[in-house]
Amino acid sequence: MSATDDGKKMTRREVLKITGALALGGTAAPAAVSPAAATPAEMQAAVASVVGDVKVTQGRVKLDIPPLVENGNTVPCTVTVESPMTAADHVRAIHVFAERNPQPYVISATLGPRTGRASISVRMRLRDSQTVLAIAQMSDGSFWSDRINVIVTTGACLEDVL
User: Fold this and answer.
1) pLDDT tens, position by position, 40-71
2) Phi and psi, residue 42, nearest 5°
3) What class is the 40-154 domain?
């Protein structure tokens, strides 16, 4: 505690309020914070970090997400890839991207021929209505994909917004 001009001692809380106000430029109003969201360009950059210059072909991948989600906090997502899962022909990895989440790269799962089935199931958070993209990397170096537009009525990742 420290003393004020009139001799009263200031509480720790009062000192923190004054310090916070000074840090905000002399005002006590809270700063407006907008939630972070990736852009379609950032999603393309994230996809490029996985596939490089290789062409991604539509097909062989089935992305199963409800097209209308009431709450974006726990969205079920299943990705299944058509593959015999043999040593010569199998899925190496499955990647999932969400276009408008703070970080577009949601998950990456590494698979091998002993996996048996090329399928993963997860629950993810979606910030807003957006496109979700799943890409499968095959053992021959090819990439296959599927995408779904998902409408989210109550977005996730917004709890800390003022």
Assistant:
1) 888 899 999 999 999 999 999 999 999 999 99
2) -65, -35
3) mainly beta
